[in-house]
Amino acid sequence: MENINHPLFNWIPVNLIEKDNEIYFEWIYLADIKYAEPFFDETITKCKSHDFNSKPFKVISTVDNLIDWSNDLISVELKSFVFHVSRCGSTMLSQSLATSLENVMISEAPIIDQIVRSTLFRADEKSTLLKSVLNLLGQKRFPEQRNLIIKLDAWHIFNADYLRSLFPETPFALLYRNPTEVLKSHQKMMGMHMVPNVLPSIIFGISAKEIDEVSFEQYGALVLEKYFQGFLDFYQTDQNVVMLNYNEGMKGVVEKFTSFINVCYSNEELHKMFERLKKHSKNETAVFSGDLYKEEVLQIDFSRLDILHEKLNNSLVEY
């Protein structure tokens, strides 16, 4: 069976909708557009000008429709989930991997986050639904495609055990970076998860009392502490996980990752990946010349972060 003859070929679910106590999924048509942008949402924005997506109504389905339809399409093999701590080279990694014609690279798809964090489903229903959505996002749309790689949102490290229960054989990658560099990047443009109360603090295991006791700047450090601890906890208990350190160089990160997921890329494909590393992660027309951060000292207590960061580095040595 070939996907190209299926009526749902190039259609994917992109949004969970709750209305009148019912749950629906919004769909969008991809045409021949690949997941090539730095973030999944940017690719979806490019698709919205297509005639199928420009009509005054949304294309929606029920949960049962989605699950049933996902079984009718051929998907490429899921090769890895990439977890990261934010501002640590994860976009550069995903952009590098996206250059390969063999890869289907999904970078922080909101629909995955919607399902993972949803309280609307029974446990078994959520698991089936998540697998179905990944099958649809990873449908084989081009002949060369063989590998599905999912870069998750930073806070999904706290769902790693749940995802492991669903995908026991899938390699997991944990990408991190020096905490000072991470937080200086957020100082330039703060991510929503680093701002108190934008995302529920319970996602990170942060109590209301902890929020009250830290400054605005220190809250970002507290979130990063939780990420680092989440990495350590999972790494120490799982046998199919690799730790990746941005500060050891992104070429080494790409080499270590591709080796770990056991995909044998051609020299041509690897060359394209390495060439992409020379450009800015969010703008491939600009040459990357290194990160430029403000010189002033951050008003942050790094004592706990430094300890956790050292433990992460030590785990790499042990690896």
UniProtKB/TrEMBL annotation:
Lineage top rank: taxon: Bacteria
Stored InterPro entries: P-loop_NTPase (IPR027417)
Protein name (Swiss-Prot/TrEMBL): Aspartyl/asparaginyl beta-hydroxylase
